Amino acid sequence: MVFDDTGTNIPEIGRTLLAQQAQLLTGRRQVQMFPAGLSELPLPHGFERHQNRCGVFHFHPSAISTDKIDELSASGRENEILNLGPYNKSDVIERMESGESLVAVAEIDPDGLEIRAAAGTASTLPEQIRYFEATKEEANMVAIIDMAELLARRLLS
Q: Which residues contact 18 (CB under 8 A, 6 or more apart)?
């Protein structure tokens, strides 16, 4: 099953986008994505911008090519270049259709700011937690959050 969610992303707050951009600038992230229909930050000096049907991508050209971005984007696997772990939305939806409950795995900074979050289920959580723990900023923590709480945080911030 392929899940095309173009334009249905819940926007991340400005502080989260700035934190992600800081990771991009320091090489802790390959790509920053601004989904179709959502605002994008100014392109940092030395980085490139690429746009496709899913949105706009800022990236360092020595880290990844536009062909690779398009390949992963076309197959719904942006998670692989956005530090979101091994599962995409289609993987999670399949598990939900089998009766699993939806949750979110998030990286949270010491001030409580969401840096990134990925949808998951009980069967994906162990691997997602290991991935997030291995790739988080040192001072940050990994949390399992109810999806409704995550959406409320984004919409009310």
A: 41
* Residues forming a β-bridge with 2: none
In the chain, how many domains are there? 2
Q: Are 94 and 157 members of one domain?
A: yes
Last residue of a domain, one of 83, 113, 133: 83
| Residue ranges in the chain assigned as alpha helix (H) | 14-26, 66-74, 89-97, 125-135, 147-156
Q: How far is CA 100 from the centre of its chain?
A: 21
Q: What are phi and psi of 56, to 5 degrees?
A: -110, 140
Range of the domain at 49: 10-83
Q: What is the Cα–Cα distance from 115 to 70, expressed in whole angstroms?
A: 24
pTM for the whole structure: 0.88
Q: Is residue 65 part of a domain?
A: yes
The answer to the question of residue 3 being in a domain is no
CA 142 → CA 9, 33, 87, 91, 148, distances in Å?
A: 21, 21, 16, 21, 17
Query: For 40-94, how does the pLDDT look when each residue is reduced to its tens digit (9 = 90+)?
Result: 999 999 999 999 998 999 999 999 999 999 999 999 999 999 999 999 989 999 9
Strand order across the 141-146 sheet? 114-120, 103-108, 141-146
